[in-house]
Amino acid sequence: MNVFVLCTGRCGSVTFIEACQFIKNYSSTHESRASRLGADRFAYPSNHIEADNRLSWVLGRLDAHFGDNAAYVHLTRDTHAVAKSYAARYEKGIMKAYRGSGILMGLSEKTEPVQVAMDYCHTVNSNITAFLKDKTKKMDFMLEDADRDFPRFCDFIGADVDLPSALGEFHIRHNATVQK
Questions:
Q1: Which end of the chain is more exposed for a tag (fewer CB within 10 A), N or C?
Q2: Is 104 within a domain?
Q3: Does some domain include residue 107?
Q4: Helix crossing, 113-132 with 59-66: angle to 10°?
């Protein structure tokens, strides 16, 4: 079974995959096929866990490839914390694509970065919620509750896991944004 961790980004997806490295019966990667086109974008190996915030923009295609034949995790973190992290990275990556000449065409340059980042978070989380509406194998996972939710996740997918080592990853800051 394939497992897709859907999220906004800046919410612990790298940490989640680091914890998954202690699962013996699944492979796991972060954004491993983000640069691929067509069917190759979705050519994940079997029994694989993939975390990639960009999947939220190709959910129709993800559904066409996997539909209800995969398990899905909606990974979230306090929305304001995610928005602050994205605001600190406002000039690059997904925030640059979302605003300016991207999704929010013609957005005033005077708009507060945190306000734009909050809008991005609400958009992505709404897209994920709509996608998951008819899925039978799904779970919510909140980063702040990882000590509770990761064991639930492991049960959910039938993981053979070194749980103490995996949970230890949630106490390490992976890919943290440096706040100015």
A1: C
A2: yes
A3: yes
A4: 20
CATH of the domain at 6: 3.40.50.300
Work out the number of other CB atoms within 10 angstroms of the CB of residue 142: 15
DSSP β-bridge partners for residue 28: 49
Amino acid at the residue 14: V
Q: The pTM is what?
A: 0.95
Q: What is the mean pLDDT of residues 44-67?
A: 97
Give the range of the structural domain holding residue 164, as residue numbers without chain letter.
Answer: 2-171
Q: Which amino acid, residue 37?
A: L
pLDDT at residue 115 in the model: 97
Tell me: the pLDDT tens digits for 75-132? 999 999 999 999 999 999 999 999 978 899 989 989 999 999 999 999 999 999 999 9
**Are 116 and 95 in contact, with CB atoms under 8 Å apart?**
yes
Tokens of 143: 């980063």
Domain count, the chain: 1
**Burial of 67 (C-beta count, 10 Å sphere; 0-12/13-18/19+):** exposed
178 found inside a domain: no
- For tokens 């995610």, the residue is 82
At which residue do the structure tokens 């640059």 appear?
96
For residue 146, give the nearest of 48, 15, 53 by alpha carbon: 15
Give the largest CA-CA distance in the chain. 50
